[in-house]
Amino acid sequence: MRTLSLISLAAIGCSSQMPEDVVRKTIEDAFLAENPAGRIGWELVGKGQWFEGTSFSKGCLIDREFAYPNFDTVGQLTPSILGQTYLVSSTQRGFCIDLGREARLVIDSIEPVSEMSQGWDIQNITAHFEVDDPTPWFECLNEDVRSRSFYVEDKNGTPTVNDLSQVRLTSNNCTGNTTKAESRKSGSRPTATPPKAPTMDQVKSLTTKLDEALYNADFDKVMDMTSCVNVLDPEQDEEAKWGYCTLGDFVNLGPSTKGQQRLQDGPPWLEGTVYKFDSFEKIQADRGDPTLFHVLMTHRRSKESRSFTVQWADGQWKMFGVYSVISQGVSAIRFMNDFHDKAKKDIFDRRLKGEKIDHKGNPLPGTEYDDVEFVGDKK
Q1: What is the pLDDT of residues 42-69, one digit of tens each?
Q2: Which of 269, 264, 378 is nearest to 333 (CA)?
Q3: pTM as predicted
Q4: Does residue 251 contact residue 330 with C-beta atoms inside 8 Å?
Q5: How far apart are the first and last CA of the chain?
Q6: Rounded to 5 degrees, what angle do the CA atoms 296, 298, 299 make?
Q7: How far apart are CA 83 and CA 159, in angstroms?
Q8: Is the pLDDT of residue 177 over 90?
Q9: H helices of 158-264, where?
Q10: 152 φ, ψ to 5°?
């Protein structure tokens, strides 16, 4: 009889006010259904130099040196090398940013809305999102992104949230359990001499695994397979440059032997030099570092000699990646460094020692006259 009575009351347009605990439970259930547990990712949409940034505070990102705005187009940004640290994967539309873990929706107020009701109870809710272990990208989200307003309605005896998008922190291709972004940390330069030079079979096995990992967007695995060195900061100690890489340095790389490039793929790591590993021609020992060996091949169009390098590190052969060039958009580790060429290897060695030059040997911007003595300098 009670159930029938409730249905009859709803049918004639009468409803009592929902208790606060019912309202809160309705919001909690909706939140849990719309937000996966674990780390939260935000999709930074864009694939070239500029990305959609309307959800972020431009001033916050600039203050933290995380991104640079496009002054010609409102709402666009490009991440800095520091901001890129928090990129953890790629999507068809862009990249995933780590925001933090375990989102929660904190209710700020619950107020009845009698003037809007049509015979049923409506409660106006204001709330805001919080996360554990928030990254600076979360902290730079605009206030209207982190704060929400919606209604809980009781039209037919079943309280519901009127707009589920308001209890959902993100709604994109990064809503699954996101990888945790890790800061760059220095390692140590590999020095152990390998028992013998790598064979071509070993090299092909390594590159096959690399290509497969890139195809599957398993950037953690790609990073584990790489012995990396970061030479972007000439002020950093030489030893500290080794291992100074992070997941975001790999997300803009793609496979080289998997056919047509997909939307989620970065530029192929072989840089279009060849499309199959059978095109590798020979392995050449480095002139100065016994841990390094260069794998040579001929560019399919220019016919120039190109190479990538493998290194004996941690008791195994790894790809040798160098973070050496700041690109427009998202910069990436380079494997095709052509270190079989003495001049290019010498430039790398000079940068490793702290010389203020770029990957072509030119002075870094703003340093062209550092060593020039002008008239009047001497006293």
Answers
A1: 999 998 899 999 999 999 999 999 999 9
A2: 269
A3: 0.88
A4: yes
A5: 104
A6: 125
A7: 42
A8: no
A9: 200-215, 219-224
A10: -110, 125
Q: How far is CA 150 from the centre of its chain?
A: 32
Strands 282-285 and 226-230, by their bridges, are: unpaired
Residue 222: what are its φ and ψ, rounded to 5°? Answer: -60, -45
Tokens 């972020």 found at? 56
Cα 281 → chain centroid: 34
Q: Rounded CA gap, 62 and 100, in Å?
A: 20
Token match 């967007």: residue? 217
Whether 269 and 256 have beta carbons less than 8 Å apart is answered as yes
- The Cα 208–Cα 126 span in angstroms is 52
CA dist., res. 208 & res. 256, Å (int): 10
How many Cβ atoms are within 10 Å of 231's Cβ, its own excluded?
25
Measuring CA to CA, which residue among 99, 105, 100, 101 is closest to residue 149?
A: 105
Among 323, 316, 311, CA closest to 351: 323
pLDDT at 10 over 50: no
Digit-coded pLDDT (tens) for 83-142? 999 999 999 999 999 999 999 999 999 999 865 556 688 999 999 999 999 999 999 999
Strands 147-154 and 121-132: antiparallel
The span from the CA of 238 to the CA of 139, in Å, is 33
Structural contact between residues 166 and 34, judged by C-beta atoms closer than 8 angstroms = no
Tokens 């909690």 -> residue: 28
Max Cα separation, the chain? 104
Q: Indicate the pairing of strand 51-52 with strand 67-69.
A: unpaired
Q: How far is CA 226 from the centre of its chain?
A: 17
Q: Where are the alpha helices (DSSP H) in 287-375?
A: 342-352
How far is residue 146's CA from residue 131's CA, in Å, rounded to a whole number?
Answer: 10
- The answer to whether the CB of 138 falls within 8 A of the CB of 156 is no
Encoding tokens for residue 273?
């030099």
- What are the residues facing 230 on neighbouring strands? 323
- 356 near 364, Cβ under 8 Å? yes
Torsion of Cα atoms, 353 then 356 then 359 then 365, to 10°: 170
